Structures are given as C-alpha cells and as structure tokens.
UniProtKB/TrEMBL annotation:
Transmembrane segments: 38-58, 64-82, 89-110, 116-132, 139-158, 170-194
Any one Pfam family match given in the protein's UniProt record, by short name: Guanylate_cyc
UniProt KW Nucleotide-binding keyword: yes
Domain of life according to the entry: Bacteria
Family matches, as InterPro entries: A/G_cyclase (IPR001054), A/G_cyclase_CS (IPR018297), Cyclic_nucleotide_synthase (IPR050401), MASE7 (IPR048432)
SMART domains: CYCc (SM00044)
Protein name: Adenylate/guanylate cyclase domain-containing protein
Any single GO BP term: cyclic nucleotide biosynthetic process
GO MF annotations, alphabetized: nucleotide binding; phosphorus-oxygen lyase activity
Amino acid sequence: MQSRVYLEKWRLPDWMVWYVSYGTEGLHGPELRQRRTLNVISALIPLSGSSYAALYLWIDAPGLWPAAAAVSLFGLFLLWPMIAARNMLAAWIFGATLAVVVQAILVWLLGRGSGLHLYFLSIPVIAIVCFGTRHAGWLVGLVLICAAAMVYSEMFITDPAPFIRVSDGLLTFLQVSAFVVVTCFATLGVYVGFIHADRAERSLEAEYARSEDLLYSLLPREIAGRLKAEPHATIADSLPNVAIVFADIADFTPLSIRLDPREIVDLLNTVFTEFDALADRHQMEKIKTIGDAYMVAAGMPNAVGDPAHRAADMALDMLKVARTSAAFLPDGFEIRIGLHVGPVVAGVIGNRKLFYDVWGETVNTASRMESYSAPGRILVTPAARAQLGSDFTFEKRGEIDVKGIGPVETWWLTARA
C-alpha cells in the first residue's frame, strides 16, 4: 500500500501504478525496491525489443523478419512480474533463460558485427539489480554461461546467418547502440549498487554512533569498553574507598498531589539534569534515579584519592540547585542528602537493559543518612567526616539510632572551609 501511495505522488497513470506495484504487497526495504525494478524492466525490455523489431522490418522486411520475430520474444517478459509474485526462483530462472536464449538467437542471426553479443554482459547485471544477491549459485552459473556465450560469439559467429541480408549501415548502428546500451546498463547497475551500499553504510554508522551514545549514557566509559571487549564476561569489582551520595525531595508525596503529572516530570527532569551536570563537573559517576531519589558515587569505576571531597562538593552544589529550582514553584521544595564513605561492590546487571549498580553496607548506610537527614541539609557519617577533615565545616548532630545499623555519631555538612 505504501508503495502505491509513493508512486501516485508522481501522478503516474493508474495502470502504470498498478503494474509497477504488482506483487509488492507486504514487501519493504531492498525486496520492495528490487520488485519494483523488476516490474519496470519487464516493461522496458519488450518496449525496446518492439522498437528493434520495427526497425528490422522497416529497413529490410524480406531479409530481417527472423530477427524481428526473435526480438518479439522479449514480449514474454511481460509475464515476469506475475511469475515473481508467485515464486522468485522461478522468476529468476525464467528471466535468465529467456534473456540468454533470445540473445543467442539474435547473435546467430545477425553475427558478431552487430555487437549484439555485448548484451550478454548486461544479463547478470539485470539479475543482480532485480534479485539482489539471492540465489548466488545460480548467479555464478549465469555469469559463466554469459561469459562463454560472449567468447564463443566473438570467436566463431563472424557473419550473419546465410538467409539474412544485413547492410553495413545497420550493423554499424546496432554495434554502436549495443556499446551505448550495455555501457549504460553496467554503469547504472554499479551506480545503484554503490549508492545503496553507501546509504546502508552511512545508516549503519549513524546507528552505531547512536548505540555508542546510548551505551555510554547507561554505563561508565571504562565499563562499556570492557563489556564491548568481552560481551559475555561478568563485570564485578571490589572497590575499597567509594563515597556515596543519596538525595531525594523532602515531602515529595504531598508535592506530587498538588502538582499535575507534567509539572512533576518537568521538575524532576530539571533538577536531575542539573545534578547530572554537577556529576560531570565533579568527576563522579551517576548510579541511578529511583522516583525522586538520586544516587551518585565518587571513586568508581576507577579509584580516586579524594572521593569524600568530591562527594561533599557535589552535595553542597546540589543544595544550591535545589534552592534555585524551588523558586519556580509557589510552595517551593527542599532536598535531603546523606553521605557515607567505604568499600563497595560494583558490577553490571542484565544482558538487555544493562545497569551498572553498586552494593554493600556503604550504600545502605548512605541511604540511611539521607532518610535521617533534614530538608535542606547534608548528613554525614564518622567515616566521611574523618576523610573530609578540616577542609569543610560541620555542625555536630550527635548520635542517632539508625535502623538496621545501630547507634551512629553524625554531623551536618555545612560548607567548604
């Protein structure tokens, strides 16, 4: 149906649209293009043949009628689309056999001087244009037959058949037209092949680039490289010193009730996009978002000397982003942040929707710090406090009983020193 609509845009007659589109229902891509090409060539060959037949009869009707009759056999190509709609291999054999047989008869009738044996070169080209690379074995056989017919004609069929009278002028005309037509066929076939190959390569390059961008947006570059090098390998790393930052929007449920869905999505997209930019700036690795929660880490997949410092800098900048974004809402909003440092295990999960994740007590503790934090504040553990040292300022919160962990001494991270 799409094929017919495409052709009708060119304002072709209905009968021509029907003929060119015959047998193309359900086809797409190269198959659709090849079938349309076959249909067009099946009409062009009889049209060309009829013009040659008329020429033979007009120039020398008594002597050239056998050649005119032979050329008229090309009218059988009008059956080609009907055969192709039912069986492509049968259409391949039918077209190749008819072309070789009729061409051989014409060369025998008119001789080598007519140049008609050059048309043997165009037969494999037409087969490739109409059928692609399918039936490669048959194509090799056709090339060998056409090459043998070409050589045989050049060496042994020198003069026209004894009962044919052909003028030198007609032979010269046929020879020149054969050179021109065969050159055009070969050039067109090569051009069509190259242009489609070029488009396919460019399309593959674009798809590859998109796939690469998608892969690197899902996974750290180093992890993506390892996965590409060993697609079936298990990627799991033990990292001794990683800083984990958890953040979420305080009182998000009541906020989501007050806002419509589009506003909620716009809010999260705006805030998390800014967080992504901060992660790039501080050379941290975004791990994931879960609803209104955002998780980022420093020191993975490659170890760094100052993971806690990077995490603290980012946490403070995240508070600034939240305050700026909150100004656009009537009631505003605030985020809670938790920070902890320690050993983790990281790896890639899944083989379809790949996901680089991190596990361990460090992750659980950082998540608890976020839960026990307060709106607009950053809660840190003793491990994080020790690594940050005097480079940042803190307020002591004191000991809190953390679910699943027990008593933990905590501090509020307030600013850079």
